[in-house]
Amino acid sequence: MPNCAFRHRLFACALVCASITAPLRTHGQVDEQTRKLAHDIFQQLIEINTTDSVGSVTAASKAMQQRLLDAGFLPDDMYLGGPNDRKENLVVRYRGTGQKKPILFIGHLDVVEARREDWTTDPFKFVEKDGFYYGRGTQDMKDGDAILVTTLIRLKQEGYKPDRDLIVALTADEEGGKSNGVDWLLKNHRDLIDAEYVLNPDGGGVDLDHGKAVSMDVDATEKLYGDYQLTVTNPGGHSSLPVPDNAIYHLADALVRLQHSQFPFELNAVTRAYFERLGTLETGQKAADLKAITQPTQDPAAIQRLSENPEWNSMMHTTCVATRLQAGHANNALPQLAQANVNCRILPGYSLEEIRQQLIKIFDDPKITVRYVNDAGGIFDIAPDRKQLPPPPLNPELMSAIEKLTASMWPGAPVIPTMATGASDSVYTNGAGMPSYGVSGIAIETNDVRAHGQDERLPIESFYRGVDFYYRLVKLLSGGV
What we know:
- With 481 residues, the protein is an alpha+beta fold.
- It is 33% helix and 22% strand.
- The longest helix has 18 residues, at 460-477.
- The relative contact order is 0.21.
């Protein structure tokens, strides 16, 4: 699923830094043995190419399976399988006493494509440089995968007995391809991953501003991902005889209309609470505007001012943006075909087909065809009626544990439920009736989010604090201390 599911980052966090300036501390240092284990697993995962084009998720799954077997996990407590030999998923169950229902942890092993010529380092080599680990997947999300596997091994080594089963599923095709692993497991082996609720390290995390922790974000809901193909056709002709009805110009005009269009303003329970909380941390006009947008009567001027912040805009509106263009068949010929991909991130409550119809209204042009593109690249005249479900209730047990850890590891940083403006595999687990939350202990500067981008990297010490956070979180949620 090409979800571009980098975790939610609050680009506005610098604005509230004056009121919450807790420095990044070294509480809960990870011992050297654990650091080496986590490092080696992280490096191994980064250096296994898991792109859809030429990579193998199966190779990464088997590598993690072997590490868990070596750590003492029984073969009967693991499952390796998928729809083909490159897209096999790994599910491992850490057995507890059964006093409580299991918790499921999901993490995708696949990564987006990366070209060596675009990077200053080899994207599929684990490079340590200037206080960072570089490599494709360091932020999205092989860091989380390595942390989950490290946590299981640590618990096994110390003989820990949780009061519930802990299930980890490492899966394929969240970023693209035809074989989404979470969807496949739910349809074919639901019993292996059935749980009370789900934690997904592909969301949430700690926002930093110049090294200071600003907030701990918990993704309590997310937008729905949708791709649409725009097509304009034309008889074409010789390029020496230009005509006004050029397919490329025609398509470009439509994209300009899209650029200057805005979907309706809307808040849900999570985003309303988020903006209400943020309003208490702001001052001046921004505080007034944040208060205004949470009132029953809309204030268009406040909405417009706040929408100038891209992150806030994306939390208040469905957003659609052109991401790819293809046109023409020869340098010396008028184009007979022009196409664009429009990528939408859709607010909960609206279906893929409803947004397709809204795009048709925006273009208001019978010569432009708008078709739906599914996760496997198939193109359809009608989009599914699938919607992102309303946010699940916040789990008190989970929120209490996160607040306790945040107060200990990042004192002063508030825990804020958010709506991820990207999307993740939580769409499948939520849809299956398992409340799902984006939870991560990784801290990243708000201006250094490089997921899916050039020279993706992760601060070294942030990774090890993330290791510590998840180990402690899992214990808090499973009867430990």
